[in-house]
């Protein structure tokens, strides 16, 4: 139950969220910084992130009632702004954590890279980059690449430098074909 925030007196605390099976580190806070503040701002009693002390740490606890007392002494505009900011942040966090169509998102990102004139992409670098950008495990991106390769949309091969690279089977038709396949997969899954 989230009813307190904390001021870090000494130490270091990591703030993260779960995105599927992955952990996304949002921030690392140090002495003098506040964390857990969403508990004071939101009506929802659930935490929006996980905070873990990276080293022995000391905190000052700020409870919800003390915060409300402070806000009640401020201008009504301050309370209204705080409520709006916190609600907007909550909605943004929800959108960030919402499931997305990994197949289509991967295809759109690959198409964006291809539109920059890249004829081939390093498989490992692309997997790592897409996993970070889409907040998913690298294994899921690899599975998506395997699916794209089995559908003859991508070709994975070794380059002259002995590293695996991705090439588009048909660059100009890649996204259009991917969209048709995505729609078909969506209908089959229903």
Can you give a write-up of this model?
With 190 residues, the protein is α+β, with helices and mostly antiparallel strands. It has two domains: 4-97, Jelly Rolls (Sandwich); 102-189, Winged helix-like DNA-binding domain superfamily/Winged helix DNA-binding domain (Arc Repressor Mutant, subunit A). Helix content is 47%, strand content 25%. The protein contains seven helices and nine strands. The chain has a three-stranded antiparallel sheet. Strand 8 and strand 9 (164-168) form a beta hairpin. The longest helix is centred in the middle third of the chain and has 22 residues, at 76-97. The chain is elongated, with a radius of gyration of 23 Å. The model has no long low-confidence stretch (mean pLDDT 85).
Summarize the structure.
The chain folds into two domains: 94 residues, Jelly Rolls (Sandwich); 88 residues, Orthogonal Bundle (Arc Repressor Mutant, subunit A). The protein is 47% helix and 25% strand. It has seven helices and nine strands.
Kindly list the characteristics that best describe this protein.
190 residues, alpha+beta, Jelly Rolls, Arc Repressor Mutant, subunit A, 2 domains, three-stranded antiparallel sheet, elongated
């Amino acid at each position: 139950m989230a009813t307190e925030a904390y001021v870090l007196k000494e130490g270091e605390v990591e703030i993260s969220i779960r995105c599927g099976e992955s952990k996304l580190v949002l921030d690392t806070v140090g002495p003098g910084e506040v964390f857990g503040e969403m508990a004071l701002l939101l009506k929802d009693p659930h935490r929006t992130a996980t905070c873990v002390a990276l080293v022995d740490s000391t905190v000052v606890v700020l409870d919800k009632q003390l915060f409300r007392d402070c806000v009640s002494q401020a201008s009504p505009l301050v309370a209204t702004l705080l409520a709006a900011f916190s609600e907007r942040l909550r909605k943004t966090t929800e959108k960030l954590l919402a499931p997305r169509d990994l197949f289509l998102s991967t295809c759109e990102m690959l198409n964006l890279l291809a539109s920059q004139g890249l004829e081939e992409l390093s498989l490992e670098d692309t997997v790592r980059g897409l996993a970070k950008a889409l907040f998913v495990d690298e294994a899921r991106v690899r599975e998506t690449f395997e699916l794209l390769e089995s559908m003859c949309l991508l070709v994975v091969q070794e380059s002259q430098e002995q590293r695996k690279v991705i090439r588009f089977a048909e660059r100009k038709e890649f996204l259009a074909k991917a969209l048709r396949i995505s729609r078909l997969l969506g209908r089959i899954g229903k």
